[in-house]
Amino acid sequence: MTNWRSKVEAYLDEKVDDYIWETLVGNDDVLDLELGLTKVPQLAAKARKLAAVLYEPAERPEADEPGKAGLPQASEATRARIDALSTIYAAWANAEPEVGRFRNTILARTCTAMSLIPAGPDRLLADDQIDRWVRWCFQADAGDGVDPQSHVMELIARRAPHSPRPIADLWWVADGREKGQGVDARGPLGQLAKLAGTLTDRYRWRPSGATMLVLAGWTPEVFVYVGSAEIRHGYLAAGTRVTMTLDPALSPDEVAGIYDRLRHRFHPAPPPRTQALRRYRLAGYVGPHVQMRTDVPSSRTGPGRRLAANPAGLAFFIDPANGHTWESLRDGWNRLYGDHAGWAYTPANISNFTRDAKTALIRLLFPGWDTHPQP
Fold it and tell me: 189 and 211 in contact (C-beta within 8 Å)?
């Protein structure tokens, strides 16, 4: 049996978190890979997207904390608007029958079973009791002597085709950090995850914030934006995209700050350099007429400096294809763009044309948004 997780980890050059892998399995993404409906790079992109978006710390904000709401470059009025919405929505949610029903039945029953006396206000859990309660319920769903993670994986393995998903995704906050876990959809945690999901959609909260409202009476912060990044690798790296869902009340400057923060999260280094107009035109002209490949350096024949191999023993080559040569490509370029000042290449500087064409093409197609070195 193919170890798809190892293949995805090898492609990403890093470990895939257990919860992210369980999510991919639960969403049938791994099954699609086994059936040939998708490929390893596409699954790796989904794993990277989950990691980039889901694992930002979600500490409980304090009233006087600078930058509350995680909104960079926000005006004082915008922050006050967020505070007002958060307070109102939390009051509404606390009064909803399904929240009261969960607290009075499931939460009360499980606390009694584990001899836990709620130490928070209004007979709710204190912040430092949340993690203990979640872990107890996680074990109770599996049964005595059964590893709860194995129980979840068995539910996924036994899932019948086209049947409802047997696990739910629960998010909460413990020790100042957001945590996530795939849980049995039938148990108390599964019911809590479903309720938190409903509240999240209704009030524009983070799922962990909705969970903390139900269990501990938090006032979750209303999110005025949601962002994600789909990071592509290899020759499709230039197709990396950032997606933002925004509150239309945000100003253009606030939106710019959000975008800058989101981009920095998946690419902390300075953004790739832009190229001059001539280089982009050169890449667009040469690209359709060359082949790009990796091979062992010794397989390259002809003049020119041998390229250094990467750790896998391969080097990256760009060569003319379909009957073209670098000379014919240069001549065609001169016919199209020779009347632009400084754009033409004389027969004596064919090496400059070759170098510039390769550089322009590599910088266009491999901008460096992913974590892998450029070729």
Answer: no
